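Hello again, I could really use a second opinion on something today. My current little project is about how a certain protein chain folds up. You're getting the sequence in one-letter code plus the fold written as tokens. Here's the protein in full, and shout if anything looks odd to you:
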Amino acid sequence: QYLPRNGSIVDVLWSASDQITVLTKVLLAGGKGSSIVYRLDAAPGKSAYAFSILETPVVRAMVLSPNQTRVALVRDEGIQIRSYDAWKVLKDVDHPAPLHAVFADDDLLILAGRWYTERLAFALPASAKTPTLDVTRNFLFFSQAEQLGFDKETGLVVAKSKDRIQALDAKGWISRAPFA
């Protein structure tokens, strides 16, 4: 496989097991963009090396976990967590307009978006027969707030951005019900 003429490299991941994954952006007819992800097994001792195309949704960026077992694929409306070597989907996580993702450790991802940033903690369920992940989400902060105000009863600052409403108390942000 060769990189198409209308393609450019966006991200490259290279694991200790010599699995090389390349994210490319391609320009389609009409000026619309898409992505193609290629994989090369570059382990020593191969008689020939060739890239293969990996099945993925449209992806804007890729981030490899520190232990190199998982990859986060940043999409337009969320992320997809996959096992890196087997390339199996472990979890889809919705998030409006994600901009950047970084693994803080093997099971903790910080996902920064146009509207807000959150921490995602991943865990394998105890009784899982198929590979999937449980996700615990924690709001960290707003990137930009669409609405700001005060709660009449408590006096707390209340902010809204996209689908998230939070109030700020002495301990930090707390989730709130939609505005009445």
Summary: Residues 168 and 174 are 6 Å apart (CA to CA). The chain is about 0% helix and 55% strand.
